[in-house]
Structures are given as C-alpha cells and as structure tokens.
Amino acid sequence: MLTRLALAVAIATLPLAAAASPLPGYPFVHVSADASVYRVPDIGAIDFEILVAGADPQAARTTVETRIAEVRALLQAQGVSLEDMETRDVRKEQQKDAPPDAPVYELRSSVHINMRDLSKWAAVVAPLLDMPNLGSFATSFDSSTREEVEAELMANALREARRRAEIIAKGARRKLGAVTAVTPAGVKNVGYAMGLLREDFSSRRGASANVTRSDFLAIEALKLMQPVDVVFRLE
After folding, report:
1. Fold of the domain spanning 4-40+145-234
2. Beta strand residue intervals within the chain, DSSP E
3. Phi and psi angles of residue 120, each rounded to the nearest 5 degrees, phi first
C-alpha cells in the first residue's frame, strides 16, 4: 500500500488522465523536470512564394520563370548549390474579385532554399527580400548537431529529475529507488518568441509574425529545452 504522503505526492503531480488510471502497487514519486541550453544555429532555410498577377497568363508565367532564373543566378553567385533549391510547379488561379469580362490570373510558385553555410545568409536573403514578385517569406534555423544536443539535454533533465525526487523522498523519510517510468517530451525552442515553431527545436519566422527586414536577416541563438516526467520507486 502507498504511504499517505507518497500517495498525496503522486496524485498531486500526475496528469489528470494518468491519475484516473490504477496507481502502481508500490510507493512511488512522480516528478517533472527540464533542462535548457543555448545553441547558435549553423544551418537554416528560407521559404517564399513567387506571385505574378495579370490578364495574360502566359506573360505572367514568363515573369515567374524569370524570377526563378534570377534566384538561381543569385545562389550560384554566392556559391550555394542549386541542389539546395526546390521549386513547386507553377499554379494558376483566377482572381475571384475580377470582373467576368476582364479576368485576372494569379500564377504562384513556392520556393524552398536550404542554407548549409550561414556565413552566406545575409548575402542571399537580402537580395531576395528586394526582388519583385516575391513574398510570404519564412525563415527557419536549426543545428546540425541535433543528436548531440538532444543527448545532452536529456541527461541534464534526468539529473534534475533525480535531484527533485531525492528532496521529496528525504522529506517523506524514504529512500529513493529505481526509475520505473520515463516520459520525455519533444525538444522545444523556447527562446524565440516571434513566428511559428516547428515540432522539433528549430525556430521559424514567417509572414504571420510581426517581423521586419532586419528580423529576416538576423541569426539568433536558440534556447532549447527538454522536459521529462519520471517515476521513481520509494524504498
């Protein structure tokens, strides 16, 4: 049977869904902990859309293809491999608010560029921001040492969980036993407030955020956090 204190700690700290389930048949303590670290990103990506509108869809398509060629030329001039540039097929839509007797067509193409050398970031991104017909920009950053960072954060989070559990066990006049369950959450970027966040720990800035030109050009450190939930047996 659980001791009164251990039971109170377990019920108070377990999530609601877990608390509704049968409890383990031994005294235990459940703790939540996390670890964080700052990392300067060394890889990035930029996404944008080429949009051209006009009454002549063929002329609009020519303009889209011209912009794609200009982007490729920019990358070649900066020594960025064209294999790191992806484009989607040009999509044609008719503007809904255009009069039926004078239709206006919108042609769009999405572009994604991987930047494996961030020393070239500003030299590539700045001209893109100035290029006509380009919009809906979004930039993202990440670390090429993802596995090492995740391992470091996990080890630190588990040490912090044990430290907290030992304090609780000491207060309950118990000895902390073995780990019986560990639930890690995904690594998250908690240091970048602007823009959208991916499920992993990379940061992303997009048109939906209140960002400026300087924001797109800036490369900032990522604050990464790894939370864990751990269950320890109490002896």
Report:
1. Translation Initiation Factor IF3 (3.30.110)
2. 28-39, 43-54, 85-87, 91-94, 105-115, 134-142, 176-184, 188-189, 203-206, 222-234
3. -100, 5
Is the pLDDT at 10 greater than 80, yes or no? no
d(Cα 90, Cα 10) in Å, to the nearest integer? Answer: 57
Backbone angles phi, psi at 144, to 5 degrees: -75, -10
Specify the length of the chain in residues. Answer: 235
Instruction: Tell me if residue 69 falls in helix, strand or coil.
Output: helix
Give the model confidence (pLDDT) of 75-97 as tens digits. Answer: 999 999 999 999 998 898 888 88
What is the dotted CATH code of the domain comprising 46-134?
3.30.70.2970
Report pTM. 0.72
Token code pair at residue 213: 């030109």
Rounded CA separation 64/59 (Å): 9
Q: Which amino acid is at 20?
A: A
